[in-house]
Amino acid sequence: MITTDLEREVLQKFRKRKILTIEQLHTLLSCSIPTVRKRLMLWDCHTSYNRNGRYYTLSGIPQFDEYGLWEYRGIRFSQFGTLKQTIIHLISESDEGLTAAETGELVGLNPRSFMVHFKELPQLHREKLQGRYLYTSADPATGGRQRSKREATVKKAAALNLSDHVAMLVFADFIRNPLTPLSNRIQQLRRQGLSVDEKIITALLDRHGITEKKTPEQPT
Hints:
By secondary structure, the protein is α+β, with helices and mostly antiparallel strands.
């Protein structure tokens, strides 16, 4: 039987140590494992989402960060519950979706160890973008906004990654041929051996505040 004094003493030790396993609580409480599990539910404890969920912490101890995550001595907890619930929340609430690498960095785990299990969750959508899988919300409206923002980020990054030499060639082409349609311009640049596409050219122009000139309409 767990007396009030014993429970109070164990809770004090729990708060001091911050995290404990069921085995440790089993020893401290001198009771069965099922009884320990009941106490954990009664105490409203958080279960670690790594280390096979072996560790527990009392509600009020974790100092969750802006993503709702807390790490203590390599043990990780989430205010959203399990790793699966956490992944769903992080991806669904992200501004532009998350790649596996970005998700792994957030939760502090190697994505190869868990993302393969979550690639077909009904709450998430997975598709390739620029050679990488992007995970977004399965909700069409939310997922669409996330993808649009990601595409804008990728486009901007592509323009920023252009070498000065390539950028100068692009600008020179615009100066020489200001009325050339973008599709024709891209073909001309590619014939010069430049690997460019519409997104890269558009992002480069946007970055420098340059607007493509339109061919004036001919009088009828």
